[in-house]
TrEMBL record:
<dbReference type="InterPro" id="IPR027417">
    <property type="entry name" value="P-loop_NTPase"/>
</dbReference>
<dbReference type="GO" id="GO:0016887">
    <property type="term" value="F:ATP hydrolysis activity"/>
</dbReference>
<dbReference type="GO" id="GO:0016020">
    <property type="term" value="C:membrane"/>
</dbReference>
<dbReference type="InterPro" id="IPR015856">
    <property type="entry name" value="ABC_transpr_CbiO/EcfA_su"/>
</dbReference>
<keyword id="KW-0547">Nucleotide-binding</keyword>
<dbReference type="GO" id="GO:0055085">
    <property type="term" value="P:transmembrane transport"/>
</dbReference>
<dbReference type="InterPro" id="IPR003593">
    <property type="entry name" value="AAA+_ATPase"/>
</dbReference>
<dbReference type="GO" id="GO:0005524">
    <property type="term" value="F:ATP binding"/>
</dbReference>
<dbReference type="InterPro" id="IPR003439">
    <property type="entry name" value="ABC_transporter-like_ATP-bd"/>
</dbReference>
<feature type="domain" description="ABC transporter">
    <location>
        <begin position="5"/>
        <end position="216"/>
    </location>
</feature>
<protein>
    <submittedName>
        <fullName>Energy-coupling factor ABC transporter ATP-binding protein</fullName>
    </submittedName>
</protein>
<keyword id="KW-1003">Cell membrane</keyword>
<dbReference type="Pfam" id="PF00005">
    <property type="entry name" value="ABC_tran"/>
</dbReference>
<keyword id="KW-0067">ATP-binding</keyword>
<keyword id="KW-0813">Transport</keyword>
<dbReference type="InterPro" id="IPR050093">
    <property type="entry name" value="ABC_SmlMolc_Importer"/>
</dbReference>
<keyword id="KW-0472">Membrane</keyword>
Amino acid sequence: MTMLLRIDGLKKRFGDRLLLSLDRFVIEAGAAYVLTGANGVGKSTLLRILGGLEPAEAARLAFMERELPLHPYPQALRREIVYVHQHPVMFSTSVAANIAYGLKAHRLPRDEVHTRVEEAMSWANIAALRDSPTATLSGGEKQRVALARARVLRPKLLLLDEPTANLDGEAREAVMALIPTLTHAGASVVMACHDRDLIGLPGVQRIKLREGRLEMR
Ligand SMILES: Nc1ncnc2c1ncn2[C@@H]1O[C@H](COP(=O)(O)OP(=O)(O)OP(=O)(O)O)[C@@H](O)[C@H]1O
C-alpha cells in the first residue's frame, strides 16, 4: 500500500464544540472511499478540511511522504486536492469555459487546455452542452460539469460531497455511471454520501464517522 495522505491528531472545533477528533486518517494512493455517518456528524466538514476550505488542527500531516502543515493550507495541496460541492457553483459562462477555467489558471498551453477540455466533456457526456450557459443546466448536468471540471485538473485526490444528492432517475444514473471512471491512474477519491448504491459500489472502501471518530470498515 502506498500512502497518499496521512493526518495524525486531526481536531475540528466549532466554538466550544469538538466536532472531529481523529487519531489517524490515512488515504491510500489509487483507492476509493465512501464516507458515511448520520446527518450532522461532520462528513462535509471533514471533506472541506481536506480540501482547504475549512481550517482545523493537525498534529502531523504527510502528503506523498512530504511533511506539510494543514493550516495555513499549503499551495502544494491545493494543486493536488480538489473538492466538488454538492451544489456546484458555476461561472456564468459556457460549460466549456467553466471546465477550462482551472487549466487556464494553471497556465497550461492552449492546445493542452483544448485537448483536455474536449476529453473531459466527452467523458461526462456533455459535449452537446459545450456552448450552453451554465444557468440553463439541470441539477444533474451541473453535477456532471462539476465532475468534468474537477477531473480535468488530474488531481491526486478528489473529494465529492454527496454527488448524487437531490438527483433522481436518469440524472442520478448518469452521475453514478461516471464515478467508477472518475479518477485518472493512481488518483484517489473520497465521497461523502447517504446513497446506498454509491456505498455499495465494488472496490470502494467504507469509512464511517461516528461521534467525531472514524471507523474503517
Ligand atoms: N461554520 C460552522 N459553524 C458552526 N457549526 C458548523 C459550521 N459548519 C458546520 N457546522 C456544524 O457541524 C456539524 C457537521 O456539519 P456537516 O455539514 O459537516 O455534517 P454532515 O455529516 O456533512 O451532514 P449531512 O449528512 O446532513 O450533510 C453540524 O452540526 C453543523 O451544524
